[in-house]
Amino acid sequence: MATHQPPPSPASKNLQEDNELTQKSGMNPKDTFVSVALSKQVYGPFWDHVLSYWKESLEKPQKGIFFLKYEEMKEQPTIHLKQLAEFLGCSFSPEEEAKGIVNDIINLCSFNNLSNLEVNKKESKNVNNLGVNEKGSTLQFSIENASFFRRGKVGDWKNYLTAQMAEKCDRITEERFHSVGLIF
């Protein structure tokens, strides 16, 4: 499962016991800031969201959550796809690699390809359950699938943030993430 939602809390399902695997990509906070400012942020505070996945990935390195940075994935997609496949327990065989399966998957999962799929066009909706209220009614919200796609460009924040804004974001990032070893 790849998700924008926070990981399950200890009170909910235990990923490790249920053998469920989650892949989480973290993006440079400045690029995330621009994406959030230009769209909707419905999954809670960015810092807490990323930290929850980062901590889970450290606590369950073999099972649970596979955390990777968007910038690193864009820079070396082959290496990261192979790591993800290994994490999922389905490493590529030498025959699959020789046939170009790795490159085929990279192309199918590219930002350009995914953002142009009909299901990810503006009119498509992604309905999410938030839980149940005190009256027993299911709380839901809906978000356009297209809102998960902006430009897919590493460093695009430079086109939107001033040097002062970028420095402030870097300071906050350092304050929030440095103590747990998460560096962007």
UniProtKB/TrEMBL annotation:
Pfam families in the cross-refs? Sulfotransfer_1
- Single GO term (MF): sulfotransferase activity
Q: Is the keyword Transferase in the record?
A: yes
Region Disordered, annotated ranges? 1-28
Compositional bias, Pro residues, is annotated for: 1-10
The record's section on InterPro entries has: P-loop_NTPase, Sulfotransferase_dom
Keywords of this protein's UniProt record, alphabetized? Answer: Transferase
State if Acetylation is listed as a keyword: no
Q: What class of enzyme is it?
A: transferase
Transmembrane feature ranges:
none
**Domain Sulfotransferase span(s) in chain numbering:** 30-180
Q: What is its EC number?
A: 2.8.2.-
User: PANTHER family this protein is in?
Assistant: SULFOTRANSFERASE SULT
Query: Member of which family?
Result: Belongs to the sulfotransferase 1 family.
Please state what the protein is called.
Answer: Sulfotransferase
UniProt source species: Morella rubra
The taxonomy runs: Eukaryota, Viridiplantae, Streptophyta, Embryophyta, Tracheophyta
